[in-house]
Amino acid sequence: MLESVRLYVKRTDKVFWFFCLFSSAMAVLMLASWAAEQGGGFAVDEITGQITGIGDFRRAMVQAASAGLGIVIALILSTVDYRSLVKVWPFHVVFTWGLVLPTLFIHNLSLGPLTIGYNAGDTDNYSWYKLAGFTFQPTELAKISFILTFAMHLNNVRSRINEPKELAKLLVHLAAPILLIHIQGDDGTAIIYGIIGCCMMFSAGLSWKYIVAALAGATAAISAAFMFLSDSIGKSYQWYRILAVIDPENETNWAPSEDVWKNIVYQQDRGEVALGSGRVFGNGLFSGGYYSVPNAHNDFIFSWVGNALGFVGCLVVLVVLIALVIRTFAIGARSEDMLGSFICAGVGGAFLAQIAVNVGMNLRVLPVIGVTLPFYSAGGSSVTMLYICVGLVLSVHMHNKKKLFG
């Protein structure tokens, strides 16, 4: 047993593990400190004042337990050759998308303790399952299946990727899950899928002429949709969130009423104030003032980092997360085959996209689209799925012999 542990430690990427474990430990600490500011964290009887439950500390405990479970899964998965996971693609495609598809048509259907198509927020997103108080978003698991299948597809056509016929097939492969998730109502996740696919195609050698043409076409399409089709594409609150970033003071009167305007900008207003209130070194983890921010434990956890640990704390968090992304791409570069490289490009692209979008939301330079910050945002299922991605990257590392410079 000890010999197996020693061999694993020798073969695995210890630096990569450090970045992951540091981020998880920081996440639990940040959520615990956030809970302590929510009326002491514990649930308290209003009459007697006695503690009746763990209250908001539950989120930190779930985060820690989910990270522990995810670490075990990542340890096991890292010992499995990633090629074998790709070979069984029909099984994980049927399983993961079999969980996603019912949520397209079924909304808040309760079957005993299970709710299918659960709405976890105040939008039209019914992409969740709820079981005995715990929620699970199947598109997170399907994301892993997509990375594996798209990597396989790229590996099969890598020498012909710039042929129009093969590129068209790849775009259909990418568009299918994006459209399904858009219909489901979770455009934030759909955007992350799109970025993952683009990162993987770029790593496969997609010609710059296609990249430039795609960027130009996307810019033109978005501009046209914004100017002429805003009433028929998307939902009103989505356009309002975009306009809230462009014109936060409603000088162009984009909001139909002052109440709508205040409701749309409220979350980012509070997040911006919370971030700035921490200044250089923060107000402290378990003391000091805090500006209440909706979903501060989830989408806006970065605002709590800024409040509690200040600019220095935000910098440390971002440096470690970006280092994790760079390490992921580096492992892909050392892979002995392109399949491993494509998998790492997909996982690294997912990490990078979520970090950039979430921080952009908190800094008020991007609209709020419900994208979480990896490791830090509260959510047991998302943390577990994250560690499955970690296991895939470590599998690539442990099953290749190629060196980066030789």
Account of the protein in words:
It is a single chain. This protein is mainly α. The protein is 65% helix and 5% strand. The chain contains 15 helices and six strands. The chain has helices spanning 2-11, 14-37, 57-78, 82-87, 89-100, 102-105, 138-157, 164-184, 187-203, 208-228, 236-246, 258-277, 301-333, 338-362, 380-398; strands at 43-44, 51-53, 109-111, 114-118, 128-131, 134-136. A four-stranded antiparallel sheet has the order 3-4-5-6. The protein has a two-stranded antiparallel sheet with strand order 1-2. Helix 2 runs antiparallel to helix 3 (57-78), helix 3 packs parallel to helix 15 (380-398) and helix 7 crosses helix 14. The longest helix has 33 residues, at 301-333. It starts with a helix and ends in an 8-residue tail after the last helix.
* Element order: H for helix, E for strand: HHEEHHHHEEEEHHHHHHHHH
Distance between the termini: 33 Å
Looking at the structure, what is the overall shape?
A: globular
Can you count the helices? 15
Tell how many strands the DSSP assignment holds.
Answer: 6
Q: How helical, in percent, are the residues?
A: 55-70%
Our estimate of the beta-strand percent is under 5%
By secondary-structure content and strand pairing, the structural class works out as mainly alpha
What are the segments in which pLDDT stays under 50 over at least 5 consecutive residues?
Answer: none
For the largest sheet, list the strands in their spatial order.
3-4-5-6
Mean model confidence by pLDDT? 88
- Rg (CA only): 22 Å
Largest sheet: 4 strands, antiparallel
